[in-house]
Specification:
Two copies of one chain form a homodimer. Chain A is an alpha/beta fold and about 400 residues long. The first copy, chain A, is about 40% helix and about 15% strand. The first copy, chain A, contains 14 helices and 14 strands. In chain A, the strands form two sheets. An eight-stranded mixed beta sheet of chain A has the order 2-9-8-7-6-3-4-5, sandwiched between helices. In chain A, α5 packs parallel to α6, α7 runs parallel beside α8 and α12 runs parallel beside α14. At the A-B interface, α2, α3, β1, α5 and α6 of A face α2, α3, β1, α5 and α6 of B.
């Protein structure tokens, strides 16, 4: 284990990254310290049939051995097939299997972010991503959205402002399709604009896409990653389309970044559960998962429709909401003067729970918002829950 | 997601920690930023039968749901039972289930270490622990060992030196039982001394114990944690006694530290695989695992004996080695003038692999050492491998 002096001393850029900056320039100080271990490099050499290996410390008594930190090669190939539906053409060596896409995001943060670095995200955004960026000691700037997704002018302005303050953004974290918490999808036209803006500002994109295959109207959206695979790290997950409890997600990144992510994964867990990986691999290989997914979509679409019907039927004037084409969530905006955090205990007393919008902002915004999820309850429960919530809002004073 | 100003601004101690310093004072800047999410706190409230929850984003289509970041409660209870054999009396709420003990170590590093912090470890030590400390940007000081484990006077001197240099050690990382890579076990007398020295210096202990149940002579060793549970974080694993590919390990820590570790785990992966956790839980509940472990010990003891016999039979004068009472490893010291890194390609050409000692030091020591593992090959392969290695050493010029 060596920490070459030149890596330690290498200065990091603090100005705007010019177009074409190599990815290595985005690495965190921590990532610069991650170097392949001599010991692990040796295991490959020792793995020849004529060699008696007294090198590795593998238990003999076990059916399920240690795997590679990058993940099962067969499963990585299957994952490339899944990503193809979002227009991504990937190679298995550019894929890292992770403990859900949450770990993928965490490892990306560790490899790319130093304390004080600026991350730009949608406002509102996924709550646990805010937790991951907080743990990485990054500063999060959240950019406004409308019903076509993040607003390009506001994104460009946020990049310019951060750069002018001497803290240029390093990452743009986005959930472009059926976003959590808004349910909103970034339009095709905006996708091109967003890519151009990030390219011009030298900002990398982390595209989190756990819901992309859960579309209830049109087909799948084309991933940002499909059009700029050298700038976009794509995060995927089997949690929403197979089972969260298996904890199989992945990151797809340019090869130079994938190599650092693999080192970070080795340091974080050595390797993921072989049992969980093989379960997903066998499922994808032997089961009609595309057909199963179609029936999953039908079941979620019924729930989405039940929620939209109930909102239209029961909500008092002044309440508005998003109309998601997929995913799990509707984002409600309450009438002026209603604070969702004060509304919540009243709603609970009336027998309905929601998440106040403030949880999805790092800066206290979202007081007039509520996230409603239609993924778990039955359609009739959704109807009842929305009716109860509408009554509590109507009684607000 | 809020970052209270008083947590951000709280100054960290840089002098020696006085006896009785509360654990919160050891937290890293990153850990200070980890606060429970409003959204997750809400899920508990929303989980009442009379409430329609539109709060959580759980998929409905799945058999295996998201679990708690802390791990399955039943499995945590079973883990307390396993730790009892090392003299530890633990409660399930002081246990965090992790992706192998590697993730436990990584989370401990994230919660306790800031860049530049000093970690003291045995010299030599576990290679991937060095990787984890490097990723945490900590400085590692390695303290000498003899055949009774780490040398107390050298440990005390290292603490005093670090403190005098203004970088007092925060952690002592140790594998006291059947150490990787030396196979050495810290004697009972030294365990008491080490605890006293760490207590006096205000240094926390991370006790890594993956091999403790693989004893081939006496019974299990009493854990350091058993005698000072408020100072010692204990890391355990099912990798060596059940299956590495399940990736089930754990951390046992004082409650205030466990709570931060759970937040770190949530940020790192949301939760571990329910499938892997339930597999281990069911195995421990329904299978005669203690008897199975006894036969595993017998099988490893045969391999250990084969290696020690072969070393005695074949090694030329000037070669010495440790005699492990358990675990997987023998640590060989080569005659003056032989560099293990130069020896390795010759050994590979002769059909035997080992790990050069330099991999287990952060500072280039270990050139005259080799780690031999007896865990995986058959006894006759071990004999052949050691014979080949002895011949290559004898031919050194």
């Amino acid at each position: 284990m060596r920490f070459p002096a030149e890596l330690r001393a290498e200065p990091r850029e603090t100005s705007l990254q010019p177009v074409g900056t190599p990815l290595e320039h985005y690495f965190s100080d921590s990532a610069r310290r991650m170097v392949p271990s001599e010991v692990r490099s040796l295991f490959a050499v020792a793995d020849r049939p004529e060699v008696v290996s007294l090198a590795g410390g593998m238990p003999n008594a076990a059916a399920l051995q240690y795997g590679s930190a990058q993940g099962d090669p067969g499963l990585r190939e299957r994952i490339c097939g899944v990503m193809a539906s979002a227009g991504i053409s990937a190679r298995p060596d550019e894929v890292l299997v992770t403990v859900g896409s949450q770990q993928a995001l965490d490892l990306v943060a560790r490899v790319l972010l130093d304390p004080g670095d600026t991350v730009v995200a949608e406002g509102p955004t996924y709550v646990t991503a805010l937790g991951t960026f907080a743990a990485a000691q990054a500063e999060v700037v959240q950019v406004g959205m409308d019903r076509a997704g993040v607003i390009p002018d506001e994104l460009a302005a946020a990049f310019a402002r951060s750069a002018a303050e001497g803290r240029p953004a390093k990452l743009f974290y986005t959930i472009p399709t059926f976003q959590n918490p808004t349910g909103v999808t970034l339009s095709a036209g905006r996708r091109r604009q967003i890519l151009d803006i990030c390219r011009a500002a030298g900002v990398l994109i982390v595209e989190d896409d756990p819901y992309g295959l859960l579309h209830y109207g049109g087909g799948p959206s084309r991933a940002l990653c499909a059009d700029d695979p050298e700038r976009v790290v794509y995060l995927g997950s089997f949690s929403k389309i197979l089972a969260p409890g298996l904890r199989i997600g992945w990151a797809h990144a340019p090869a130079v970044l994938t190599r650092k992510l693999v080192l970070a994964a080795e340091s974080a867990m050595l390797s993921h559960s072989a049992l969980a990986q093989l379960t997903v691999d066998r499922y994808l290989c032997t089961q009609p998962w595309q057909e199963r997914l179609a029936s999953v979509r039908t079941s979620y679409r019924e729930r989405r429709d039940a929620m939209l019907r109930a909102l239209s039927a029961y909500m008092p004037a002044g309440v508005s909401w998003t109309v998601p084409d997929g995913g799990f969530f509707v984002w409600v905006t309450l009438p002026e003067g209603i604070d969702a955090r004060v509304l919540l205990p009243r709603a609970l007393a009336a027998g309905v729970a929601f998440v106040p919008g403030t949880g999805f902002y790092a800066d206290g915004r979202g007081t007039r918002n509520a996230r409603l999820s239609f993924s778990y309850p039955l359609p009739e429960e959704i109807d009842l829950g929305v009716r109860r919530l509408a009554a509590v809002i109507a009684e607000w004073r």
